[in-house]
Amino acid sequence: MRWITTTTTCAALAAALSAQNRWALITPTTSPQMQRNGAMGFDSVNNRLLMFGGLTQTPGSIVADTWSYNGQWTLLSSVSSPARWGHRLVRSPVANRLVMFGGRSPDVSPLANDTWEWTGSAWSVVPTPTAPSARHLYGMAHDSTRNVVVLFGGRNYTATLNDTWEYNGITWAQRSAATPPPARAEMVFVDDPATGGTLLFGGTDPATGAILGDTWTWNGVDWTERTPAVSPSPRYRAAAIADSVRRRPVVYGGYTGTAFSNETFEWDGASWYIVPAGTVAPPNSTESYHGYDPVRRKFVVFGGWTGAAFTNATYEYTGVNNGLFSTYGDSCDTPQGEPTIAANSAPTTGQTLTLTFGNVPTDTELVLAVFGFSRTTWNSLPLPFDLAPIGLPGCGLLAAADVIDILATSGGSAAYSLAIPNQAALVNVQLFTQGILLDLLPVDFVFTGATRGGRIVIGN
């Protein structure tokens, strides 16, 4: 750890070059047939997207084809899983495989609850000791912070569900939650690098006819309903991915109950924001296959239902590298309330970001501004780390303390200026921060509270 008392800067960090924000229609030489409601995920063994299953239009059938996509579509000849639709494909925490669960599969039963993994060349069934009940149209995502697969909700034969399950690569385990979201199917459910968990939005409950527009996050312990200032209208059957390069979820389309949307939204960790008007959007706005290719840095949407017909069009989306600042975790409050952390602008190369630590008691003289490149580990210690050793039991260190700057308070706040060099290599770099309050008088070194964590994603 390094203690400093002057303004610090980010340096020598790896990241991606900036890109233009656009949807583009792709014209591969070969494409799968017109179909919908299958699944797509990234095959990291072969650096390509993988697509499996779904429903065709004419003749109507459930398919068991496996296709790969890396700018061109290729039909793979491999040992196949039974045909199905209404399932999902996400990264498994074991051996970087793709995991698939359940769906509607007449080859197994009308609804399945089997678990399969893609080995890189074939499908292999996983005989899990326990598993969720048979279902389809559920939400499933890989939680990259905790390295588990999370499954939520869906539909069985007669009901809409709201149970939460996790898969560790060996078996499934049901997780209890004090405040689970209402039951739903066909929702947005993706990894959320902002909160360090998974993100749920919208969906529908066919049992009641409800179309939902709420936003929730899951951290492995409980669900939290979020109240974003801006949000998409209620909808279901949208396409959604977690952009692991730009470090944010992206949502496209969906059905509102009266209209087929062609809007694109991104999540910054606190609120949704719509991609500016003028972006060319694909018309296949519901029940599409969708996945993110981190090698080519593309959100890929294939097939689906346009509101009038099936399609087999392929579209790709590349987003803008705008900077993001958001908070995560829990604060450690003082008798005055929650100490706050806020940024004056989006973190951008060539600019100075000012962080303000506010609502600090006037008798607290210092704020320790902690900065690090991880929020999961620090010096081999798992985070959050209990701050009981410094007199804050039950409070957590939420960012690796790679650098700590000592800030003097004035009028109940302290400010920190982070000068970001104008270097393309810094774009999409992620940094974590937290303020820890220190009272020097009347007794030396009494820690009185801590802010929530702050997540900085540098843009250009």
CATH topology of the largest domain: Neuraminidase
The shape, in one word, is: elongated
**Major β-sheet annotation:** 7 strands, mixed
In total, the number of domains comes to 2
What structural class do you assign from the helix and strand content?
mainly beta
Unreliable residue stretches: 1-19
Number of strands: 39
Notes on the structure:
By secondary structure, the chain is mainly β. The protein has two domains: 2-13 and 324-457, Immunoglobulin-like; 22-318, Kelch-type beta propeller (Neuraminidase, 6 Propeller). 0% of the residues lie in helices and 48% in strands. The chain is built from no helices and 39 strands. The relative contact order is 0.14.
How do the helices and strands line up, and which of them pair or pack?
Elements: E1 2-4, E2 22-26, E3 35-36, E4 39-43, E5 48-56, E6 62-69, E7 73-75, E8 88-91, E9 98-105, E10 109-118, E11 123-125, E12 139-143, E13 148-155, E14 160-167, E15 172-175, E16 188-192, E17 197-205, E18 210-218, E19 223-226, E20 239-243, E21 248-252, E22 264-267, E23 272-274, E24 289-293, E25 298-305, E26 310-318, E27 324-328, E28 340-343, E29 352-358, E30 366-372, E31 377-378, E32 381-382, E33 385-387, E34 392-397, E35 403-408, E36 414-419, E37 430-439, E38 446-450, E39 453-457
Parallel strand pairs: 1-35
Antiparallel strand pairs: 2-26, 3-5, 4-5, 5-6, 6-7, 8-9, 9-10, 10-11, 12-13, 13-14, 14-15, 16-17, 17-18, 18-19, 20-21, 21-22, 22-23, 24-25, 25-26, 27-39, 28-29, 29-36, 30-35, 30-37, 31-32, 33-34, 37-38, 37-39
